[in-house]
Amino acid sequence: MNIFNLNKIIFFLFFVMMFVSSNQKAYGITDPLSLPNNKFGVHILSPDELLDAAKLINTSGGDWGYVTIPIQASDKNIVKWQSFMDEAKKLHLIPIIRLATNGDYFNTAVWQKPSNEDILDFANFLNSLVWPTQNKYIIIFNEVNRGDEWGGVPDPADYAHILSYSVSIFKSRDQNFYILSSGMDNAAANVPRKFINQYIFFRLMDQAIPGIFNQIDGISSHPYPNPGFSQSPLVDTEKSIFSFKYEKQLINSLANKKLPIFITETGWQQNANLNDTLLAQFYKSAFDSAWSDSSIVAITPFLLRAGAGAFTQFSLLDLQGNPTERYNTIKNYPKIKGFPVVLKTKGVLGDEIIRYPLPVKRFSFYENHKNIDVYSKTNAGKLFLKWLLNVR
Known about the structure:
Layout: H1 3-22, E1 41-43, H2 50-57, E2 65-72, H3 78-91, E3 93-100, H4 116-127, E4 136-139, H5 156-173, E5 177-181, H6 198-208, H7 212-215, E6 218-221, H8 243-255, E7 261-263, H9 276-288, E8 296-299, H10 325-332, H11 349-355, E9 361-367, E10 370-376, H12 379-388
Parallel strand pairs: 1-2, 2-3, 3-4, 4-5, 5-6, 6-7, 7-8
Antiparallel strand pairs: 9-10
C-alpha cells in the first residue's frame, strides 16, 4: 500500500468518525419547567382518544398539553403505537407512557409483578418508536404500594430495584427517556401484605437502595381528594389533593435535589352528594390553588372517557360522549402555549433510511486481476469507494 492510499484511508476513517458524531441523538433530557409549559392534560386509556384529548387541553390559549396512557406488556404493537406517536405530534400532545404488566393468570384480582426481562422488553420496544418530543416520559408502573398492583404483596425493596434497573436500561437505550417513579395510592393505610402508606413506602425504598430518588427525573403523583374521592379542594392533608406537596417534600429530602411533579391521576367521584356542577367548581378551585404549584409539570385528571366501564363516576365525558360541566371547566380554563423540544424527524436522511430502506445496488470492478464485489446504496457511494481504492 503506497502513502497516497494510506492517506485516503486515514481521511476515510476521519470522515466516518465525523459523520457518526454528527448524527448522534441529542443526549440528555430537557427541564420541562425551563420552557413555556402547558401543564394541562388528561388521562386516557386508548390511543383513539387523542383527538378528544386535544379538544380538551389545547384550548383557551393552550398548546402542547399532556396525555397519560398505560401500555401493557402484551400490547407491543409497533404499528399501533407508532401511529399513536405520529398522531400525538400532529395534535401537539406530549405522551406520558405508564408501564403496566398483565393480570395474573392464576389470580385475576392482581397485576403480575414485573421482572427485569419485562423492563428490557419495554425499553427496547419504546426506544424503537419515533417520539414527538425530545423528552420521552415513562412512569414505572402504578400504585405499587398496593398489593394488587404488585403480584399480591407490596414490596418497597423489590420496587426500588426494579426502578433502579429501569433507569439504567432506559437511559442506556436513549438518555432522553425521562423516568418517573410510580404514582402511589394516597389513601392506603398500613395493612400487612396488602397496603403500605406511601410515605413509609418511600422511606423503605430509600433504605433498600440509598439515594434511589437521585436516579429518577421526576415524581408521578396521584393526589386524589381522599377519603372517598370526595373531599373539598380546600382540604390540605397528606391524603387530599395536596398530597403531592407532602410526597415532594419527603422525596426531595431523600434525594437531596428538587424533583418536578407530574400529577398523572386525580379527580373526584361523582355521587349523590357531589353533582357535576359542584365538581366543576372543585376543579376550578383546585387549579386556582393546590395545583398552581410551580413545581408541577403536568396535571392529567383521571379520566377522559370511561364509557360503560368501572370508572364512569370519574369520566369527563358521559356515556354518550357528551362533555360534562367539569370537562367544560377544564376546557375553558386559561392556559398557555407550551414549547417543548420537538423532534424534527421528517426529511432527516437517517430516519428515512430506517423507515424506508433505500434500494441496494451491486456493482463489481477489477483491481490487480481480482474481482471486488461492493454493495452501494447510491452512485455516489460507488464513486467514493472507487476513489478510496484508487480504481478507475
